[in-house]
Design a protein that fits this description.
Layout (H helix, E strand, L loop, with lengths): L2 E2 L2 E2 L2 H10 L3 E8 L4 H9 L6 E5 L4 H8 L8 H23 L4 E10 L10 E9 L6 E10 L4 H21 L4 H7 L9 E10 L7 H10 L5 E4 L5 E2 L1 H5 L3 E6 L7 H18 L8 E8 H4 L8 H13 L3 E5 L4 H9 L6 E6 H7 L11 H9 L5 E5 L1 E2 L6 E2 L11 H9 L3 E3 L12 H10 L10 H10 L14
Parallel strand pairs: 3-4, 3-5, 11-12, 11-14, 12-13, 14-15, 15-18
Antiparallel strand pairs: 1-2, 5-6, 6-7, 7-8, 9-10, 9-13, 16-17
Helix pairs in contact: 1-5, 2-5, 5-6, 11-17, 12-14
Length: 479
């Protein structure tokens, strides 16, 4: 048995501990890559005390007859139907006979492992619905995995290990969700499995904020990015971005200011016009992106209170949030291109465009800035540039007068002339004087003028929840 301190990390030992735990009893339902998870429990011995039933409804007609019809078979609704059906059967059939001593569970997965020709997307949904103790209300964990091994047999092996890790985490780490997440890749590496979505729900996780769990995935390298909507619900990127045009704005959002919202509005109007899309068709997904580099403090740690404040401000603005570990824009573009075959656009301020042409950021690339730009613009990606008001001179910095290194003039000119870099003209010039750093300073100083720098709903969230070091304005009577 292998331990990390007091923690079991060996998959054989994990499966055996579960089998020897007399409280745990449930069903395994697996579709798409063999019964890879339950196999571990049969292999280590003692499975009769754990496995009530093991099944795999591979045939679509049979699967539909059991779980109901589905448009797709590797999707979250199918997984949820499997968990609901199997867990309900256990409770209906077994509570009366052994409910006082048993915590029931249902484990399910529906996956698409590598096919014979290697042409399919290798991914899957996996989850467990369980009782933490006898007669407890249900709790649930759902994850989405991407299999990165090049061989079907290796993908199946990795799925089996992740499934055992998931069950072990649910049963023994439910009071420490972060440790639960860390343990999911015990016995594996991020070169074999990526986990790009996790959602914990139910009584055992009633205090859990899944936005923090999403960030943890990225922080640990289990996923390059994670996504959640304005309500805080975790999203699976491939389902949100599938066949959609994507518009991204990267920022610190400390706080979310009028200028951030105006930049996105202006860029979307231009993007839809360039794509010849009718306004508000829903064919453009807007993402407000926070990078891990932006979230980390000098010591490399993430201030969770600060992160949640920014997430809540973006939620108040009605925006979907993307957390990514892709500081380089070409890596962000490559990530998004995995999930959509439509157009991708990024909007940024002129100062960020200037940084984009700073060659120090590409020292690690053999081809330097040319390689970076080749990757960034290869799928007709477009940059929409918001003007910068130079506070020292009062002049506007735009695509037309941005200064880049002399030897990059021709490269810059080519990208502008080809339409890869476009200036935003339809901007609200009343917002150009607003900078988030100034708003943050005023918030912390008790200077009420910051309220005119942010949308009303954002101001309300900041004041109500005392975000960003907010100090109420001083009363003249107290001075």
């Amino acid at each position: 048995m292998v331990h990390d301190g007091e923690r079991v990390i060996d998959v054989h030992a994990k499966a055996l501990r579960i089998n020897l735990d007399k409280r745990r009893y449930g069903t395994f339902a697996e579709i798409g890559a063999g019964q890879e998870v339950v196999r571990w429990f049969f292999r280590v011995g003692g499975a009769a005390g754990t496995v009530a039933k093991s099944m795999s409804a591979y045939d679509m007609t049979v699967s539909d007859a059991i779980y109901g019809k589905a448009e797709r078979y590797v999707c979250r609704p199918r997984l949820e139907a499997m968990l609901e059906h199997e867990h309900r059967l256990n409770l209906d059939r077994l509570v009366e006979s052994r409910g006082d001593t048993t915590a029931f569970f249902a484990f399910a997965d529906t996956v698409s492992a590598r096919n014979y020709h290697g042409t399919n997307e290798c991914h899957g949904w996996m989850g467990v619905r369980f009782q933490s103790r006898p007669h407890d209300r249900d709790s649930q964990i759902v994850i989405h995995v991407r299999m990165l091994d090049g061989e079907n047999a290796l993908q199946q092996e990795a799925l089996g290990i992740v499934g055992v890790n998931l069950l072990y985490g649910a049963f023994y780490f439910d009071e420490d969700p972060e440790l639960l997440i860390e343990s999911l890749l015990d016995g594996l590496t991020t070169h074999r499995i990526a986990i790009d979505m996790i959602e914990l729900s139910g009584i055992a996780f009633r205090e859990v904020d899944n936005r923090l769990m999403s960030m943890k995935l990225v922080q640990l390298g289990l996923s390059g990015a994670a996504m959640f909507d304005p309500s805080g619900a975790v999203l699976q990127p491939s389902e949100v971005l599938y066949k959609k045009n994507v518009l991204v704005e990267r920022g610190s959002f400390r706080p979310v200011c009028h200028v951030n919202m105006d930049m996105l509005r202006s860029a979307r109007e231009n993007f839809e016009r360039d794509l010849a899309l009718p306004a508000s068709t829903g064919d453009v997904v807007e993402l407000m992106e926070l990078t891990m580099r932006n979230l980390r403090e000098e010591g490399g740690e993430v201030d969770r209170t600060d992160f949640l404040a920014r997430a809540d401000m973006l939620a108040a603005s009605g925006k979907t949030v993307l957390i990514s570990d892709y500081f380089e824009y070409y890596r962000l573009a490559a990530y998004l291109s995995q999930y959509t075959n439509q157009r991708i656009a990024i909007t940024m301020g002129a100062s960020s465009l200037r940084d984009l042409f700073d060659e120090k950021y590409y020292a690690a690339l053999e081809g330097g800035i040319l390689e970076s730009f080749g990757r960034l613009f290869k799928n007709e990606l477009r940059l929409y540039i918001y003007p910068l008001l130079d506070q020292a001179t009062g002049k506007l910095v735009t695509v037309d007068n941005l200064e880049v290194a002399p030897h990059l003039h021709k490269l810059y000119g080519y990208l502008v002339d080809s339409g890869s870099i476009k200036q935003l003209e339809n901007v609200n010039r009343d917002y150009l004087h607003i900078f988030s750093r100034d708003a943050l300073r005023k918030i912390r100083a008790g200077d009420a003028s910051w309220e005119s720098m942010v949308p009303p709903q954002v101001a309300e969230v900041i004041k109500t929840r005392r975000f960003l070091g907010y100090l109420p304005p001083k009363s003249p009577l107290l001075e």
